[in-house]
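User: Hi! Is it possible to get a structure for several chains at once, not just one? Here's what I have:
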Amino acid sequence: MKSRGSLILYVLAITFFVAFFFYPIANVLKEAFISPKGGFTTDFLLEVFLNPIYVEGLFNSFRMAIFSTLLSFAIAMPLAWISDRYRFPFKSLLTSAILVPLILPPFVGAIGIKQFLGPDGALNAFLGIFGLLNEKRPHDWLGEGRLLGVVILNALHLYPILYLNITAALANIDPAMEEAAENLGCTGWRKLFRITLPLAMPGIFAGATIVFVWAFTELGVPLIFDYPRVVSVQIWDGLKDLTGNPFPYALVTVVLAFSVIVFALSKRFFGRSNYAGAGRASMGSSLRDLQTPWHRWVAMGVFTVVTAVALLPHLGVMLVSLSTDWYQSVLPHSLTMQNYQDALGDPRTLASISNSLKYASLATVLDLLLGVSIAYIVTRTELPGRQWLDSFSMMPLAVPGLVMAFGYLAMTREGKLFHFLMPGDNPMLILVIAYSTRRLPYIVRSAVAGFQQTSVTLEEAAQNLGCPPGRTFRRITAPLIAANLIAGALLAFAFAMLEVSDSLLLAQKQAHFPITTAIYSLFGSLGNGEGMASALGVWSMTFLAVTIIGASLILGKKLGALFRV
Amino acid sequence: MLEFRPRQPRNAPPARKVEAPKTGPVEAEPPVAPGIEPPADDAPPVFKPAVTRAAAPVKEPREPSRHWINFKHWLSQLEDPAYWRARGKYVALLGVLGLILLAPYLLRPSNRPPGGKADGTLIILTPHNESIKREIGAAFTAWYQKKTGKVIAIDWRTPGGTSDIAKIINSDYKAAFEHYWHQNTGKFGPWQPGYGAVFNDSKLDAAAATPGKPAAQRPPEARVRDLFLESNVGIGVDLFFGGGSPDFEKQNKAGYLVAKDPSGKFGLSALNERNPELFKDTVIPLSVSGEPYRDPGFRWVGNCLSSFGIVYNKDVLKRLGLPEPKQWADLADPRYFGQIALADPTKSGSVVKAFEAIIQQQMRLVLEEAAEEIKKLPEKMQKAKEDEKLSVGWTRGLALIQRIGANTRYFTDSSTKVPSDVASGVAAAGMCIDFFGRTLNERVKDRDGNSRVGFVTPEGGSSVSVDPFAMLRGAPHPEVADAFMEFVLSIEGQSVWCNKVGAPGGPQRHALRRLPIRKDMYTPDRLVHSSDPEEFPYQKAEKFFYKPEWTAGSFDVIRIAVKTMCIDTHDELQAAWQTLAEKGFPKLATESFGDLRQLEYKSIRETVKKAYDGKEMLGLVKINRSFGFQFRKQYEVSMRQANAGK
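Assistant: Yes, the chains can be modeled jointly so their relative placement is included. Here is the combined structure:
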């Protein structure tokens, strides 16, 4: 019984991956290998390495990814360490708020940053108050910043992923190890570098890999800083080029190969040392109270400052949405609700909210079904190839969103095999599939972590007492992993609401726009476009911030298990 | 509170088996809606865990198993305050989420148009923005009510931009025509799948137009085409309003636009019969400087004008010590370094056309300089000399683009990014469509009516084209559609486009800042009320004459030139340009910088054409690489030379 049921799930999951992950990617990649005359060619691929502009683009992306990861680590490590070791006032709220920067609505985020960093923006106006500004030549933070700016912004956006991983890893370190070290005279920094960090390494690297690949394929931030010579911008430019050149697909192939190699290496070296279910030999809390008020203030201050700085773009969006013109001043001159009124009066706004909720919640349901099935197969069965299934389910993280979106678009064109998924240009089905494929890793990770932390003996006991497998899952396993699933589902939902590439390419008619497409389209309206787009952006930020803080309050440190390879 | 604790109820079996023994009071309770905490005091103390637990085990395996969720059990759980205390986090979270979700629906403005009261409707497909729809719509309904006493409700449909609308019109007509055919199968014969690609094919019209050719000799597809053109098949839309003349020409060729309805009483040709003065060269000319302004067959007509130009921020210019720009060439000043926002010609047809206008302007200037010289030559040699001069002009145009490109901050594919970045001071100047620039000027006006954003259409450097409208075949309300077009082309309607808010005939809330098409709007007494009284687009249009043969088929060439010369090599270009400017443009270095031999007028066009005709994408890739490589090299060389002071 059990094995047949799992076998069906196994086959279904594999079919899903073949149809909605490998097939669309293959559709895109084959463009890079077909010569205009129809034969096979590697000339396009070769071109990537022959043209110095693209080599430089790859190199710059690589630098961008490395530095962004290092800076994220520099931000996340102290935070994680404080949170792991000490109690301080408002801790649960502060440690939740630290995650909010992860959700920045697309397009409007750029407005927020521009308002702060432009030559006539808030930062220069602020410096001007203290006489630190050369009126003739104000700082052009955006134009001069380039790589540095991109790295800082990337890090401020992505550090929550590392933070979650490091806290989860630190929490799993056996305090006995550190105590032993201290007994032997290894204390302070030496203990940190010789004992604590090496023990936390697998978790750190797992998170770092995700941050690295995310930064490597990041498109929005380099575009804000007008930094075109990175590979993601080159792909974006090439795909939108009207000359119909298939060359960008070759670039996509290289990026994809690179991302997959990074993932594979990370998994090869760090994925096996699985600490999630290992538990630790000695229990007992290692949390200490901070002794002096001064220490407590420092701890709270560090969290508050990091969150506040990372939330500056969000604040910018909020202020833009409340103003008509914000220019050469620290804060807008006057506040107004006009943008909200205009946005609510626009037919695109409400329709997109309903659409996005529909798409994202259906995608989350599909994700839950798939994710739990895959996690079950991976952790509870001996089916051959289940490790591969586990790896597959993480691969959507390595594929740039744009590539997947083009794949889906190509396979649902008229006359293609999957055209039935877009009946009458209604992209609902394909969008649900696209969203769920891209966010599946979070659910699989959370479910796998749940299964691994739950002893299989509990299920065996139930089955010994005559409980059939389905009911065992329902009455025993599901309640035990519910918290993991809820957190994973909330995150998957939040990211589905913010998904850009699929939404832009697949939702072509206004009636079907999800929120991201509506923001993009409102943004393009003449005159008050930025204000209206920001208003809708503020709404989605608020909604998702509550979701993320909720997930973190429910799950606490377990949230870290979601962002691992 | 401070750290994660596992939730209580899961480990607390007491709440589980309540409903089994205690039927009376529990079942009598009305079902409690989730999300509302039940009043704990009302309920008698029904929870007696110890007893329940002792009694239950015998029955347990049988009882709750059928359903996924045991509702009775679940409802009874809801009455336990402990259940809620333990799930307080979830409940609060769901409550907040629900509130945020509902907020936009609750706060939605309720000023829906009173749909039931109208005497008639007008359905318009348009890419225009909300202010245009609101202002033109309000002005028209008031005008129509005054004229006829009837109230009209306008159904504006904006499914996307112009290209989206074109796609929708096309697919809707296809479906409508097929439906029409199926209704008349008796007369027409059976429907063939291929007909869907034939009915809108204008190439078949040539066969139809040949006089004296018997109908039987014409291809059978032509009959399908004829049946469509004779029909009144419609898509339930009256008007297509806004876009560009090429879009309308395409729709016209397909046969979707009509000059009049079947009765012959309504439509542009009927309007022409009623008011022949309107379609004269003194009011709405047929074309200006090679740019069509209306269809000679009266199937579409322009109603306002647009052109590309320079939008600039006066504050930033003052800071940089620069005068307000008047010409494209002004943007090549090295003091603009890093301060110019350009649209990307590789990603938009209208932008590449604007770049073409820059090049054509230089070609014209060179020809004008050499006019005397050419005239002196014997007639046979004039043509060759002219070609030579055109080649010089082409290179000069590209060199200008190269220098502007060196000053450029970015090449964007978003049409609104340029004016908005200029308004916010991120860039000093940029290239954009006139009403984008003027709308931003309007938006950032201070209390005294001054604006930091300015806009200029370079004289002779941009074509002036039209935004048309047209009645669609099978329009359900031809009478109102006719009235709408009459209104927009009337002096009252044209005033809405350009007049100031509050001026007679002007808009109510927002000035639209569009230039009207009627020439007789540009008279001193009418310009008094205009937001842009200094604009005389017809004079500017006449300074620019579009010569398609000069740059025929070179859209792709221009794209490749700009891509390799400025976009792909932007870092090197900027570095070289900055060094040149610092060193005062040493001669040799400046020459290496501006060496455009590989983009020579004739050779480049032939090379690119060959690559395209042979569908040699790989060839194209190689052209891109070798040109880019060459430019990189020459920028590096130029920089070295400049540093050496050569």
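Residues 1-65 of chain B have pLDDT under 50 and may be disordered. Residues 521 and 527 of chain B are 7 Å apart (CA to CA).

User: Great, thank you!
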